[in-house]
Amino acid sequence: METPTPEASGSAATSHEAAADSEHPLVVLFAAWMAGSQQAGRAMLQSTAEPSGVWGRRDHLGKGKNPRLEPTSPLTARLAVVVRWFMTPREKPIDLDEGLGRFDGTTQLGLEHPLIRGNVRRLHVLQRELQRKCLTVTLGNLAAGPRAAFVLRWILGLSDDQLAEVFGTVEAVKTNGGRALRDLRDSLTPICEHIDPGNGCRCRNRLAGAVERGFVTWPDRDDLDGDRPLLGQAHQDVESLYPKLPPPP
């Protein structure tokens, strides 16, 4: 299939790329994490390219008696706009049980599968794509405020002061960050092998069901390790697990 030209596509892709090129790299990465893909993140940034009324609608981010903090840099000002955009109602969360077939963990994907082609390295890559997809979907199912706080602090490494400027108050950062940790731990701690190696939800056992349901397809990327199988080998917390994931494609 031929790649659409800017004229044929209405220049939508070009305008999205241009918007992303003018953004701070951290804003682009944040949008990708929040939207689930780089393409969706670029489109979102294009839709917020005119930050009118930036400070007029921040009550949902900073409530209470704490002093309201205004951004002191273009980076935190832009992030505040992007976070606010994600506060609109979202689509229904993806059902991981349905996508993964968590109750069918006995059938492993064989080397003869068309996606594997007899190459064990491809099997390992698919295991890592399943891990990435499962964990990012879990993150994506959080409410926008907690999700933004988690991405900005524990994945992208913003400071407490920067976060307070993005969210408006220190209390808003604590509330959203605390809720993110609680919800992610509640979702993953009882089941995920990468949080606790003794847990029963294992990527190698869920891969066949995930592929069958279309939850996982061959990834269009080259940064997933195919040299070794993916096994949960040590206890981790969500704060240390997520920064190890590759960014959304």
Word description of this protein:
The chain is mostly helical and 249 residues long. Helix content is 51%, strand content 0%. α3 (25-35) packs parallel to α5 and α9 (160-167) crosses α10. It is globular and about 60 Å long.
| Sequence stretches where pLDDT stays below 50 over 5 or more residues | 1-13, 51-64
Q: Rg, please?
A: 20 Å
Helical content stands at: 40-55%
Q: So what's the overall shape?
A: globular
Overall number of strands: 0
Give me the strand/helix succession: HHHHHHHHHHHH
Mean pLDDT: 84
Q: Hey, roughly how much beta strand do the residues contain?
A: under 5%
Structural class: mainly alpha
**How large is the count of helical segments?**
12
The N- to C-terminal Cα distance equals 21 Å
Query: How many strands, what sense, and barrel or not for the largest sheet?
Result: none
